[in-house]
Amino acid sequence: MRVAVAGCCHGELDKIYETLALAERRGPGPIDLLLCCGDFQAVRNEADLRCMAVPPKYRHMQTFYRYYSGEKKAPVLTVFIGGNHEASNHLQELPYGGWVAPNIYYLGLAGVVKYRGIRIGGISGIFKSHDYRKGHFEYPPYNPATIRSIYHVRNIEVYKLKQLKQPMDIFLSHDWPRSIYHYGNKKQLLKTKSFFRQEVENNTLGSPAASELLEYLKPSYWFSAHLHVKFAAFMQHQVKDTGQTAKATKFLALDKCLPHRDFLQVIEIEHDPSAPDYLEYDIEWLTILKATNDLINVTGRLWNMPENNGLHTRWDYSATEESMNEVLEKLNHDLRVPCNFSMTAACYDPSKPQTQIPLVHRINPQTTEFCAQLGITDINVRLQKAKEEHHLCGEYEEQDDVESNGSGEDPSEYNTDTSALSSINPDEIMLDEEEEDEDSIISAHSDMNTPSVEPSSGQASDFSASFSDVRILPGSMIVSSDDTLGSLDDREEKPCEAVELGGGTDLTQVPVKRLSDEHEPEQRKKIKRRNQAIYTAVDDD
């Protein structure tokens, strides 16, 4: 099965599908599945734009609304997770996943599905320590604090994923698992992104929660985005019990969707030829969702997951054969994901712009149907009931105080003091609040025991080369030989073949060099970058 993986989409669906069509013309066959690793930006209208955590002048409609309205249809089944630049009000309607447009499926806050026998899991958002132990308390209209916290990963999602026992084929996250850079060509990574050096040396780059999941799930493939650079790694997992088979994970992070950038990769993955060619629910995941339904928290209070410490009557929510059979009976043994997309908000009309569309906390009929069938609670229904009873009023005021003061909470289970870190990623959209450190790829120092021993060069070199061999894409995106571990720092880039995307843009035109903000004098002339209107990192004062 040919699977395409995209990095940060930033709403550029037309360009991504055009590039897929080009890959199909050059490749051995059609693309069967597209996986997108966040910053998808499923923006339906002007109200959705106001729910994106980017400065107002960088909010642009892009092309998703054409697929939402039915004007266009995705040419290939597309599965995606959320990142940190999303139409959060839209994705919040689908906490357990669902269709955002025909043939485009969102995995939810966390989720697992199957396609042609391939098991695909994912977790949306990025890690932020001070929100990690809170419930899902945010709802539109968001305030300056909740428009950011809405996309922060929560411990409940990680806890649910850690109840899984069956093997995972593919896993998606937006930010990288912490320490993964020790298992690839770290030298080339730091040559490309020199401003990562301090975090890499301190082992603070990436998400400790994702690292925990990587160590637990041990998927065959793990795909990420967020840092706007292509990076491959090969992680050999340690065998803890004798008799266990050693597992390894092939990791790949991709860039954002721009010319001359490695934003797309096509790989061949073995699948079950007898498996159905439609999207299916994963029975183990559904059983875990049902079992953990009572753990739903819609408050901003900090809380811990149940564990075997004498304080909880239950801490194991993994799926048994009996419980899975019960869920199968509920679903009449039909695991097919229903094609039940419906529009829940007005679609953008370029001829009739509407800048004053009110923000509404909606209940999506897909989620209602899913919850009724499985017998679980819709988080948004619980939120609305709490609003009606005025149970959250004080907590929202407290949340604002915490965000503004930067203190007032118990410490997270992860040590996340980043006061000594100051590097920034000039490719990232920056918000005007210094706490948004994960957007500038500053994560936190973790006390997790994640291995950070560098693998042998041959292992990672073979893996990186294997990715290069299977990708058949425009010449401007061909993998450089510098991506292998044996690359030389002084090696020059080779010229690429000229390729045009939809609009006829020549991708071999050499782009202006992007400069890091490191070590530059305070008084310097500002350079207007080519894509500044969408992706620059400077907000209005």
Automatic annotation (TrEMBL):
SUPFAM superfamilies: Metallo-dependent phosphatases (SSF56300). Residues 413-425 have a biased composition (Polar residues). One of its GO terms (cellular component) is nucleus. Residues 235-380 form the Lariat debranching enzyme C-terminal domain. GO terms for biological process: mRNA splicing, via spliceosome. It comes from the Eukaryota. Residues 515-524 have a biased composition (Basic and acidic residues). It is found in: Nucleus. Its cofactor is Mn(2+); Zn(2+); Fe(2+). It holds the Pfam family DBR1. Keywords: Hydrolase, Iron, Manganese, Metal-binding, mRNA processing, Nucleus, Zinc. The keyword Cell wall biogenesis/degradation does not apply. Residues 395-426, 515-541 are annotated as: Disordered. InterPro entries: Calcineurin-like_PHP, DBR1_C, Dbr1_N, Metallo-depent_PP-like. GO terms for molecular function: metal ion binding; RNA lariat debranching enzyme activity. Belongs to the lariat debranching enzyme family. This is Lariat debranching enzyme. It comes from Galemys pyrenaicus (Iberian desman).
